[in-house]
Amino acid sequence: MALSFHTTSRKLSLFSGAAPCRIASRRPQSLVRVSQLPSSSDIGELQHLNNLHNQRAASILSVDVQNDAGGPDYSLVQRNLALELVRVTEAAALAAGRWFGKGDKNAADQAAVDMMRKVLNSVAMDGVVVIGEGEKDEAPMLYCGERIGDGSMFPKVDIAVDPLDGTSLTSQGRNGAISVIAVAEQGSLFDPGPCMYMEKLAVGPQVDPDSVSLDYSVRHNIKWVAKALDKPVSDVTVLMLDRPRHADLIRQCRDAGARIRLISDGDVAGAIEVAKAGAPVDMMMGIGGTPEGVIAACALKCMGGHIQGRLWPRDEKERAAAIARGYDINKILLMDDLVRGDDVFFAATGVSDGDLLRGVRYYSGGASTNSIVMRCKSGTVRFIETYHKWTKPSVTNISLDDSDDSTAMNRRTNGNGSSSSAHHYGGATRGRGAGQRPPW
């Protein structure tokens, strides 16, 4: 059965959330009347729909579906979820990017939160926010414990979000801000509780995770990373946040002979860089946010890297609260403590330019985004460049400010007078210049 790309896309989104009876009702020409014998084309169509439904059911029931070659589950629901997550981060990045360099980090963060929440509610899943914008009384949306999705019963998932990792970077017009989301099967993600910070140690796929530890000396860890990467210690680069609390750690790294790379914010992207082939950093150390550590663990698990952490209470009150809730603040949390299983998805879109992803580019009548999406079970890592056109309908629709002349013109062109829309033009299209106009 020959189908155009756009027809296929609509079918994929349909199977991700609709019941089989809805599929049949959308295709009455494929139903067989009692008074009519089925043709060979009717039978083929019904068999095709039945096969797709069986794939969806197997995915929903978490059955480990294998293909003839013994490969992983490539059912439509699972594949479609990965792309839906990219749309989520694209929408948040497009909204936050409007505040790039405008000096208002709260407005940038709120724009990303609002848009991410809106698009998440269109995704076919039953999700619970485990890592979000705070407790329910601290955040009006994307708070911990909030249920997310379009009302579908399956798949049931845990969700970790950081709508804008790098609020200060965005408001100050600096590099390295991204929008991120991670999704795993229900009960898989570590709940940081009251401890908002943790010690972290992240390394790439070439390093044996048993050879390094937060319990070992800084010198020992650097030495074993150098050995695994087959380079002298003097060529090892350690990434960490530029914070006063890291003064002693920086001294120990330099005493060991390693190089230091300091970043002002954005340690999720920094952790991913460690596992990226050809990256300018070899390991990440230091104290950073616990939520970011869990999200980074999802990404590194998809890439074959490793991360470990240990809760770092900021004061005695936070320490007492963690102990009262049963947390062992001395325990080293390994990868499988932070995210269990291999049914893990991760997606991120650049807000401002960085080593990992290019930032949002706005054009007359549209914009382009650069994203990464990963799936642990299949081991795929995709970089996606997407072009958005305001005059076309899409879930990544962003509301723009009429005070901007070009924006007002685009909204009038759109014809609905209330918001503009984005259209996805491309998949993994590479090689375009950063400032080149989109193809419309």
UniProtKB/TrEMBL annotation:
GO molecular function: fructose 1,6-bisphosphate 1-phosphatase activity; metal ion binding
Keywords: Carbohydrate metabolism, Hydrolase, Manganese, Metal-binding
Species this protein is from: Volvox reticuliferus
A single GO cellular-component term on record: cytosol
Protein name: Fructose-bisphosphatase
Biased composition (Polar residues): 398-413
Keyword Hydrolase: yes
Ranges for region Disordered: 398-440
PANTHER family associated with the record: FRUCTOSE-1,6-BISPHOSPHATASE 1 CLASS 2-RELATED, FRUCTOSE-1,6-BISPHOSPHATASE CLASS 2
InterPro entries: FBPase_class-2/SBPase (IPR004464)
UniProt-listed Gene3D superfamilies: 3.40.190.90, Fructose-1,6-Bisphosphatase, subunit A, domain 1
Family annotation (SUPFAM superfamilies): Carbohydrate phosphatase (SSF56655)
Chain intervals with Low complexity compositional bias: 414-427
GO terms for biological process, alphabetical: fructose 1,6-bisphosphate metabolic process; gluconeogenesis; glycerol metabolic process
One Pfam family, short name: FBPase_glpX
